[in-house]
Amino acid sequence: MRGVTLIECLVAMAVLAVALFAVAPSIEAVRRRVAVEATARAFLATMQASRAEALGRHRRIAIAPHDGVSLNSGWVTFVDENRNHRLDAGETLLGRHAPLPSGVSIEARWGLYYTQGLAFAESGFIRTEARKWLSGTVRIAGHDRRICITINAYGRARVAKRCDA
């Protein structure tokens, strides 16, 4: 008769369990690194989609922290009819991103202005509430990994080759 005995099955499962425990730390490290990369890709995609929406709708499109304070809480994308960079009643919500994974943070550094969110004007250019041009860097960091996204005043975003501290 062909088949596998109970002893052979238990030995195979024990070997598999030992192998799984051996690689578990490296799997966790990869998962953490991927969390930083996924957050950076999501934010870059949000910026590119918001710019395209601003050009397509001929309306100001804003990206703001979900809690109104920090992008670490996630962010919302919406048509900013009153140009205050905050999602108010009656404004069209275009997208929502969940809070960031544990250990991952996002920080926006704009040249002369302090704001966590940003808005794309009808022309696709990035603007402040006071209609001033805005450019700078968004830094996503965590788990010994940093990714910087730079954005110029024309609204073009790209991943920076270097991301200094």
Throw out a few tags for this protein.
165 residues; single chain; alpha+beta; minor pseudopilin epsh fold; four-stranded antiparallel β-sheet; 32% helix; five-stranded antiparallel β-sheet; elongated; 1 helix
Brief rundown of the structure:
The chain has 165 residues and is α+β, with helices and mostly antiparallel strands.
Please explain how this structure is put together.
By secondary structure, the chain is of the alpha+beta class. The protein is 32% helix and 26% strand. It has a five-stranded antiparallel β-sheet, with helices on one face. Strands 4-7-8-9 form a four-stranded antiparallel β-sheet, covered by helices on one side. Strand 7 (136-142) and strand 8 (145-151) form a beta hairpin. The longest helix is centred in the N-terminal third of the chain and has 52 residues, at 6-57. One of its GO terms (biological process) is protein secretion by the type II secretion system. Pfam families: GspH, N_methyl. It is a single-pass membrane protein. Residues 39-153 form the General secretion pathway GspH domain.
